[in-house]
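Deviation from plan, reported transparently: 2-acetamido-2-deoxy-beta-D-glucopyranose complex.
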Amino acid sequence: MYTRLLVNAFLAVTVVVVFGQVTPEELEPLLVGLAQKPREIGTPQLERRVPLSTNDSTVAPLIDLQVFAPPVIPQDGTSCEVVLLEHIFGDGSFGAPAIVPYIPPTDDTCGEVGKWAAISLNLTTYSIGTQYDRLGVIYLSLAEIWRTSSAEPTKTGTIWTTIKDVTHFTPLFAQEGNLKMDFSNIIDPSLLLDGVFNVTLTATFYAPTENFATPQTSDLILPLSNLSPNLTNYFAVDTDAGGTTNISLPDTAVEAYVEVFCSGNSAEEFWYLNTPDEFLDAFPAETGLIGKGPFREVQVLVDDQLAGVVWPYAVIYTGGITPSNWRPLTSYGAYDAPTYWVDVTPFIPILLSDSEASHNITLKVVGQGLSPTFNSNWFLSGSVHVRTGSSKTTGRITVYDVPEPKIETTGGASAGNVTVWTKVTANRSLNIESELNTAEGVKKVKFSQTLSYINEASYADEGWIQSANQTTTGTTTSTHQGVQVLRDAFTYPIGVFSNYSLFSEQFGGYGSEINQTHTRALQPPTGGGSHTIHSVQHAKGFIGMDDWPGLRHAINGTGATEQTFAYTSSNPERGGAAARATYFRDVATKNDGWVRDSVWGTLREENPPVPPEQIFGEGGGPGFRRSVLGKIGRRGF
Ligand SMILES: *[C@@H]1O[C@H](CO)[C@@H](O)[C@H](O)[C@H]1NC(C)=O
Ligand SMILES: *[C@@H]1O[C@H](CO)[C@@H](O)[C@H](O)[C@H]1NC(C)=O
Ligand SMILES: *[C@@H]1O[C@H](CO)[C@@H](O)[C@H](O)[C@H]1NC(C)=O
Ligand SMILES: *[C@@H]1O[C@H](CO)[C@@H](O)[C@H](O)[C@H]1NC(C)=O
Ligand SMILES: *[C@@H]1O[C@H](CO)[C@@H](O)[C@H](O)[C@H]1NC(C)=O
Ligand SMILES: *[C@@H]1O[C@H](CO)[C@@H](O)[C@H](O)[C@H]1NC(C)=O
Ligand SMILES: *[C@@H]1O[C@H](CO)[C@@H](O)[C@H](O)[C@H]1NC(C)=O
Ligand SMILES: *[C@@H]1O[C@H](CO)[C@@H](O)[C@H](O)[C@H]1NC(C)=O
Ligand SMILES: *[C@@H]1O[C@H](CO)[C@@H](O)[C@H](O)[C@H]1NC(C)=O
Ligand SMILES: *[C@@H]1O[C@H](CO)[C@@H](O)[C@H](O)[C@H]1NC(C)=O
Ligand SMILES: *[C@@H]1O[C@H](CO)[C@@H](O)[C@H](O)[C@H]1NC(C)=O
Ligand SMILES: *[C@@H]1O[C@H](CO)[C@@H](O)[C@H](O)[C@H]1NC(C)=O
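Because the crystal trials were delayed, the predicted structure below was used instead.
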């Protein structure tokens, strides 16, 4: 994917912060924790600053990161670290994933195969040069386990590390298979693209301890993917048919959950800023606004019957909207995209019935346009997490209440379309119930979703100026015989103001201001425990560009991004510090430099702040700049 410079104007704005379905009780500990920020320690050491501009001779790479809560791991007991992959994604890596055999670790320190307390992955990438942001995807035995993307590198080197808890993929890690990473990169001297991605992926396996038992994960994981042995495995979807995987469940299945990975790419990278078709003619084609509206639903279907939906969080990649906003601090989700769960347990009777020769699960996207309803394209994949019993499961769906969503588009314009506004609202509720006879007895299963969505946009200057505020709120719950097995309550507001007024000027440019919040209380259905995340980001920046027309290069830019992040998790099956964990962070960057970074909470040491020698202090860094061979712009941006 790369920045849609020519294609879109965005914009933005604010965000109505509605906490929606996340309860005040869930949110309070996060807000209280954030208020307990410790006093700053350490002072900036500017003389040891990291290099940023092309003529800088220092060699320490700029630390770049997405804020994440590190995995909760046993504090005592043994563990082992295994290198899964070392690979350089450079010339020729486009469409050519790295594939290596995977063998479960057998050293005593790792713990018994398949009985680990936790598994974490460390993905570290180093890059030096110039590059677009690229999507990265990691698969274990053809099932996606991580969707990531790249930093915008610097001429003097960038390094970024993300740690991810992958314990719930234990059934895959317990078997021999292969590990595949697709990080399709483009090296092209004519586009000045020379940054390769030097990737190290390690896994750490933790043996169970008294306080930290082996969690109950699924018994079996089936990929929902194109199953190609040598290519990337997500479905690159550009039709309303979506991507279908034939599925054969063991007939003793007691529970089955679908985990979904999804992201918009190309003309769908900024789907939430796309314009309803009814209003596209208000703008000249040169503005490059994209149609089919801003509302997107990702659907999970069993044998063509809707089983549940995802109203996704908008991940902004590091080249997104205004690239200078996201180096060295990315938007939430850029290096570890959120995933979503649909309980397909109510459909086990259908998946096990012999009336059809085979059964399947489909992942598809529905937008607001016509045939197809969305633009090209979305990348969809997932997996089915199955728990089995000791006897054949039977049963039937007793309630299937899945009405169409209510989607409304309104809008208007001033005389001559000088200013245009649009509003899209959507609501959906569904409820699916089954009665199952399983090895564990009779189970009444109830899966429900309630979702609401609003997107308001306004445009000026023929569409070169855009403001959009979108909020997606919802709750997904599932109970099995009255016991809650899944709960996902979220509010995702995003506001974007973008200004491309001077985009097509000699030495023009573009800028944006963005607010984005991710508030989510999640009890995932496998692995035990639950957590709540509250991430609030504000970013503002601009990019100056060289000659128009021609191949536009960014020649300078500024960007400032601030983020507060709070995380709490609880797992009553664990003792000691692992029962309740917290992670808080207050971080800011400006002009390619770290302004401040404070981390507190029980997990601080697992993901500490950037070291003092990377902190520039209040003024931030010098910002990105490239020499322009003596030319002088008519107007700066
Ligand atoms: C972002 O939020 C700030 C603080 O609420 C507000 O002043 C600003 O207008 C917002 N900007 C956008 C683009 O949402
Ligand atoms: C979005 O919210 C911001 C800040 O509240 C506001 O200034 C702007 O007008 C809003 N934009 C739209 C299209 O409603
Ligand atoms: C790099 O060049 C810029 C102007 O081109 C100059 O201001 C700056 O001092 C130089 N930096 C170093 C480290 O030489
Ligand atoms: C992650 O991996 C990198 C490279 O292998 C290593 O330098 C770094 O220390 C690791 N980080 C953690 C927290 O394990
Ligand atoms: C890639 O990273 C490894 C480990 O950090 C290092 O040994 C190697 O020299 C790097 N290669 C390149 C081409 O940067
Ligand atoms: C991928 O595998 C298929 C089937 O084994 C083979 O036909 C195809 O040539 C392979 N493609 C590449 C790029 O290796
Ligand atoms: C899925 O099953 C159907 C019906 O048996 C079959 O026609 C189709 O080829 C299968 N698809 C794949 C990808 O195996
Ligand atoms: C204004 O926009 C509408 C579409 O919303 C379009 O049909 C109409 O032709 C436009 N009028 C002008 C004067 O551009
Ligand atoms: C999926 O299964 C349904 C029901 O058997 C069938 O109608 C449909 O054709 C299948 N889809 C694909 C792509 O095989
Ligand atoms: C639909 O969603 C909108 C926007 O979130 C909300 O204001 C409205 O109350 C919802 N309507 C229903 C019927 O849920
Ligand atoms: C970016 O470069 C242009 C052209 O040289 C110049 O006019 C403008 O002032 C520069 N902006 C910044 C922030 O350096
Ligand atoms: C867009 O940016 C230009 C250049 O900085 C500025 O003159 C103009 O006022 C901006 N427009 C808006 C609506 O902010």
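The longest strand covers residues 441-460. We consider this an acceptable substitute for the interim report.
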